[in-house]
Design goal:
- 39% of the residues lie in helices and 15% in strands.
- It has 344 residues and is α/β, with parallel strands linked by helices.
- It has one domain (10-206, 237-265, 296-310): Rossmann fold.
- The strands form five sheets. The protein has a seven-stranded parallel sheet, sandwiched between helices. It has a two-stranded antiparallel sheet with strand order 6-15.
- Helix 3 crosses helix 9 (238-248), helix 6 runs parallel beside helix 7 (173-193) and helix 9 (238-248) packs across helix 11.
- The protein starts with 9 loop residues before the first helix and ends in a 19-residue tail after the last helix.
- The mean pLDDT is 95.
Length: 344
């Protein structure tokens, strides 16, 4: 992948986010049937669905990509269909609606709830732990790729490479606990019914409209004081995370194959903001000091298994700063990465 010096607009951005990697294309001929993406209407789903379609076309594979969402906005549904993605409107908590979803040999599970969890915890638990059981019963004969989160590890000391897949989990807060519950439900059904699965612990996907870098750049350009307490983070280009999810279809197993999806660097909030301030010609002010730990994941195994990244953190920072400087569109969905108590 060759990125331009600057990304012109949203159309170009989404084309780049949906450009498949060699590993994603290579996985397509080994798929035995259609791919359904549940929760396609989220931040990553639309470009992942488009990438799946492009990867199949590049591999010469004639399979359907089926995007499932409630589609509250008809515009997204029209856009996906224009790019060759079949769409189905469905409330995934409706048992009868799930029963009528089309068959698929492969399912990518992206549905879940994070923001708004505090104060409405029952819905978060329903989405993150009850829904997986419904999906496993409906798609008992499939291979699954399940999106999870690095939040299940809890905080880890910085400078040691981040949490690894074999490390003990220690979720902080109800959101993270419910995400571990999601993993356990898929593990149970994988064992009980022989469903091959790959669980991807993501930490953190970023593009120019959303993510930790976009959050920090927006604060810097607004001249807000930046809290340093959560002083370190991982980041991975969303296009690379999309490509790794598609490659993971080839690595599902029973019991589930747990894989971290994360960039290899432990980025410093302080250093990133100073760099952003220089690029945006803004003086940066800070409060607090860096804690000894942060939410950090070791993505080495995932990068080796599912294809290396194509966009490194430095390049992503450069593109983000340019996007913010030019007043580029924002999804207006802060990550709240700085939360140390697990409140979202």
């Amino acid at each position: 992948m060759t990125l331009p010096a600057a990304i012109r607009d949203v159309d170009q951005l989404e084309d780049l986010l949906s450009e498949p990697s060699a590993a994603a294309i290579d996985a397509m001929p080994r798929l035995s049937g259609d791919v359904a993406i549940l929760g396609v209407g989220g931040k990553m789903g639309p470009t992942l669905a488009r990438m799946a379609r492009r990867a199949m076309d590049a591999a010469g594979v004639s399979r359907r990509v089926i995007g499932v969402s409630r589609f509250p906005s008809p515009g997204l549904r029209r856009t996906l269909e224009a790019h060759g993605v079949d769409t189905v409107s469905c409330d995934l908590l409706d048992d009868e609606a799930i029963a009528h979803l089309p068959d698929a040999a492969h399912v990518i599970f992206m549905a879940g709830r994070k923001f708004g969890s505090t104060g409405d915890e029952p819905l978060t638990w329903a989405m993150n732990t009850h829904l997986p059981a419904l999906v496993c019963r409906r798609y008992r004969g499939t291979r699954l790729v399940v999106f999870s989160t690095g939040n299940v590890y809890g905080l880890t000391a910085h400078g040691r490479g981040g949490s690894r897949e074999e490390d003990a989990v220690a979720p902080v807060g109800e959101y993270a606990m419910s995400c571990l519950g999601r993993e356990r439900m898929f593990e149970y059904f994988s064992h009980a019914h022989g469903i091959p699965a790959a669980i991807l612990r993501l930490n953190y996907a970023a593009e120019l409209r959303y993510g930790v870098l976009a959050d920090l750049a927006s604060r810097v350009v607004r001249r807000e004081t930046v809290d340093l307490t959560m002083g370190y983070f991982n980041v991975i280009w969303q296009g690379d995370a999309n490509a790794m999810a598609l490659a993971a279809l080839d690595h599902a197993s029973t019991p589930p194959n747990v894989i971290n999806v994360a960039g290899p660097e432990e980025l410093s909030v302080r250093r990133v903001c100073v760099d952003l301030g220089r690029r945006l010609n803004v003086d940066v002010s800070f409060t607090g000091r860096e804690a000894d730990d942060a939410l950090l994941s070791n993505g080495a195994r995932g990068l080796e298994l599912l294809g290396g990244r194509r966009v490194d953190a430095t390049r992503l920072l450069e593109l983000t700063a340019d996007w913010i400087r030019r007043g580029g569109e924002s999804l207006a969905k802060p990550t709240h990465f700085e939360s140390r108590a697990g409140h979202f």
